[in-house]
Each structure stands twice: as structure tokens, then as C-alpha cells.
């Protein structure tokens, strides 16, 4: 009897995890979409303004690591394109940055000149909405898997 009870409790927990796991995992935003993280041809301000970022979401920066990097800087250094005092620097060519707190994140490319050419993006992160109803709205866009590439995890594409 007790066994059956705890089993069904366990099952219920599994179902709960399955139901809420998706929203807890957050949305993955590939910076620049198919263009990736580049110094030419992408208006990252427009890209960022078309999206909503929440705590728990993550950013993916895809680029050629020989040519670029991802440098998180202060708001002031973002305006100045000055990467000499990085808060964090990512250099793998395929970096995932989890947005763990609300507020403004400032990313630039630390390679001289690139930020000035527009390789910079500011991400305004909103607190997680804990309301049970609010979360599922952006459903169609949320797929973390881009259908074109079979194994996106470790493949630098730009
Ligand atoms: C960047 O900031 C550092 C330290 O604040 C300063 O020494 C340097 O001159 C700045 N570089 C540029 C290109 O403004
Ligand atoms: Cu660059």
C-alpha cells in the first residue's frame, strides 16, 4: 500500500517536472540568428529589441574563435567600445551565456575595431515571471534546436 502510494507520488512528480521543465529551462537566443556573432551586417540593437529576455534564458554566440571573442563589459565600456577591463571573456567560438539575474548585460567583441563596426549587443533581462499562466506565450519560437544543423552543440559556424 505504502509502496503504491509513494510510486504514484513519484509519478506525479515526474509529470510535474515534465510539464514545467520546458519553461524552467528558459529560451535559448542565438545572437544574430543565422548570422551569428559577426562584425558586419547585423544590427544587434534591432535583433535584441525584437526579443524578450528573462532570467533563466540563455544566449548563444557562434563565431570563428580565431577572429572574434565575446567580452562582457560595463555599460560605460560598452558605450566606449573599450574591452580592456572585461567582466568576463568567452573565447570558444560557441559560447552559451546563461542570464542569471535581471538587468542589463553588455557584450562587445574584444578584437580592436570590431565593436566600433557594430559587433556589440546589449541585453535587457527581465525577472522571471512566476505566474503560471504567463510563461508559455512565446511557444513557436522557442525551439532550441535549429533544424538545419544536426549537432549544433560543438560546431562553430561563423
Ligand atoms: C580603456 O580603458 C582603460 C582603463 O580605463 C584606459 O586606460 C584606456 O586608455 C582605454 N582605451 C581606450 C581605447 O579608450
Ligand atoms: Cu570581432
From TrEMBL:
Query: Which residues are in the Phytocyanin domain?
Result: 27-127
Q: List all membrane-crossing ranges.
A: none
* Segments of skewed composition (Low complexity): 142-152
Q: Name one GO molecular function term.
A: metal ion binding
- Alphabetical keyword list: Copper, Glycoprotein, GPI-anchor, Lipoprotein, Membrane, Metal-binding, Signal
Instruction: Identify the InterPro entries for this entry.
Output: BlueCu_1_BS, Cupredoxin, Mavicyanin, Phytocyanin-like, Phytocyanin_dom
Region Disordered: start-end pairs = 136-158
Task: Supply one GO CC term from the record.
Answer: side of membrane
Name of the protein this chain belongs to: Mavicyanin
According to its UniProt entry, this protein's organism is Cardamine amara subsp. amara
